[in-house]
């Protein structure tokens, strides 16, 4: 735990990093390193990290492993679990995992990978999102063994003088080495001054938490290196950095993102998670399995051989989808999701669908679909009708002007969205 806040006077007097003594590398350390390296993009600096592991093994003192997430949206998707799974592995190896909620940094907005300034969130939005983040992270991490921190603990007391001292630690030229900043600067796209503060402030989190290892996505590399640099300037042993690949969304093109609507939320319904996973391509399937499955690498390699020999990849994809549903719900939910998927594939209706009561009959089809929550807008409703993607009681609807009288209807949009609607006058 961090017992004090480094103010500007301390920032100005920080010196070089603490030298790391040599510890023998045992077979146990090599085995742990193999687990840590699985699926990672980069491990910087590996020799230093091996020494940290060796020291931990010899002294019995666990490493402090940090993951920071800004609660910029209300839900965590399975793309986030790539780094969360790595944190759980490190936790199971006996190290101290720090789940850092960036409630202060969210007020700035992470510019990583952005081609424009990110709109800041209100304090109220951040607090609501942070609560759901913690609840959903608990589906992956052992929260009884997790150190949960908020970076407003040390950043709010830092004050204006502390921020000015922190800003003196880095130059504009070095900041423009970031690829996204460079592109924006060369393209004459505005960069706000507060965006330059984001990497510094995120890096300062590592100083405050005395982090040994920080885990993040590949898009966070610059920020993670900043933490290492600031620790060195504060006389701390610099953290090592482990970056994990960014998971592509369902389209297989852009990274998974709620704003791009190509995501799978870990709090989604079991049938929704299952159906979305079954929709990914047979090629993208391997990427998902390697990054998300808990199967051994040998098992995955054997599965690839079987598919090359003629085994149906759909069967393997269904097994993987069941694994993920069971992780965030239960084995029983995974079995039901498989049964529902097979039933829908045969043109049937799932056993468990949303029950909704609506008034206003006779109600236009576009209003019924929107009010039932099956589409986000009436224009989207009409688009689905035009594309023959709407069924009522199993019959495809082609009349965009259709009005439904009072009654009970099983309404389907696309392959996965169902509702049993009771419509009243």
Short description:
This protein has 425 residues and is an alpha/beta fold. The protein has 3 domains: 237 residues, HUPs (Rossmann fold); 76 residues, Tyrosyl-Transfer RNA Synthetase (Orthogonal Bundle); 70 residues, Structural Genomics Hypothetical 15.5 Kd Protein In mrcA-pckA Intergenic Region, Chain A (Roll), CATH 3.10.290.
Order of helices and strands: HHEHEHEHEHHHHEHEHHHHHEEHHEEEEE
Oligomer: single chain
How many domains make up the coordinates?
Answer: 3
Q: What is the averaged pLDDT score?
A: 87
Sequence of strands across the biggest β-sheet: 1-6-5-2-3-4
Instruction: Tally the helices.
Output: 17
Task: Quickly name the level 1 CATH class of the largest domain.
Answer: Alpha Beta
Distance between the termini: 61 Å
Helix content: 40-55%
Radius of gyration: 25 Å
Function: Catalyzes the attachment of tyrosine to tRNA(Tyr) in a two-step reaction: tyrosine is first activated by ATP to form Tyr-AMP and then transferred to the acceptor end of tRNA(Tyr).
Catalytic activity: tRNA(Tyr) + L-tyrosine + ATP = L-tyrosyl-tRNA(Tyr) + AMP + diphosphate + H(+)
Main location: cytoplasm
Keywords: Aminoacyl-tRNA synthetase, ATP-binding, Cytoplasm, Ligase, Nucleotide-binding, Protein biosynthesis, RNA-binding
């Amino acid at each position: 735990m961090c017992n004090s806040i480094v103010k500007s006077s301390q920032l100005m007097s920080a010196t070089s990093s603490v030298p790391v003594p040599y510890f023998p590398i045992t077979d146990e350390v090599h085995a742990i390193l193999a687990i840590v390296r699985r699926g990672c993009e980069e491990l910087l600096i590996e020799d230093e990290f091996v020494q940290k592991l060796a020291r931990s093994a010899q002294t019995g003192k666990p490493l402090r492993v940090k993951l920071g997430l800004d609660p910029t949206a209300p839900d965590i998707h399975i793309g986030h679990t790539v780094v969360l799974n790595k944190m759980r592995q490190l936790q199971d190896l006996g190290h101290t995992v720090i789940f850092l909620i960036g409630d202060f940094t969210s007020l700035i907005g992470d510019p990583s990978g952005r081609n424009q300034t990110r709109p800041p969130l209100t304090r109220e939005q951040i607090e609501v999102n942070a609560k759901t983040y913690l609840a959903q992270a608990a589906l992956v991490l052992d929260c009884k063994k997790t150190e949960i921190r908020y970076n407003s603990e040390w950043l709010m007391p830092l004050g204006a003088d502390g921020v000015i001292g922190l800003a003196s630690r880095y130059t504009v030229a070095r900041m423009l080495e970031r690829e996204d900043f460079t592109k924006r600067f060369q393209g004459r796209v505005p960069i706000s001054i507060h965006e330059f503060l984001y990497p510094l402030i995120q890096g300062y989190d590592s100083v405050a938490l005395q982090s040994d290892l920080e885990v993040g996505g590949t898009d966070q590399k610059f920020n993670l290196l900043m933490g290492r640099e600031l620790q060195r300037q504060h006389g701390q042993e610099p953290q090592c950095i482990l970056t994990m690949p960014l998971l592509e969304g369902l389209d297989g093109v852009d990274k998974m993102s709620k704003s791009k609507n190509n995501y799978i939320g870990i709090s989604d319904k079991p049938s929704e998670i299952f159906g979305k996973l079954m929709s990914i391509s047979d090629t993208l399937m391997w990427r998902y399995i390697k990054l998300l499955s808990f199967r051994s690498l040998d098992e995955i390699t054997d599965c690839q051989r079987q598919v090359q020999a003629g085994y149906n990849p759909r069967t393997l994809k269904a097994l993987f989808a069941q694994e993920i549903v069971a992780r965030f719900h239960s084995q029983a939910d995974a079995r039901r999701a498989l049964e529902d998927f097979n039933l829908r594939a045969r043109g049937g209706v799932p056993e468990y669908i949303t029950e909704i009561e609506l008034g206003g009959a006779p109600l236009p089809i576009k209003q019924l679909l929107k009010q039932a929550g099956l589409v986000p807008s009436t224009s989207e409703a009409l688009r689905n009708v035009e594309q023959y993607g709407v069924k009522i009681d199993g019959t495809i609807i082609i009349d965009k002007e259709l009005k439904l009288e009072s009654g009970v209807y099983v309404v389907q949009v696309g392959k996965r969205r169902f509702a049993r609607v009771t419509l009243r006058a």
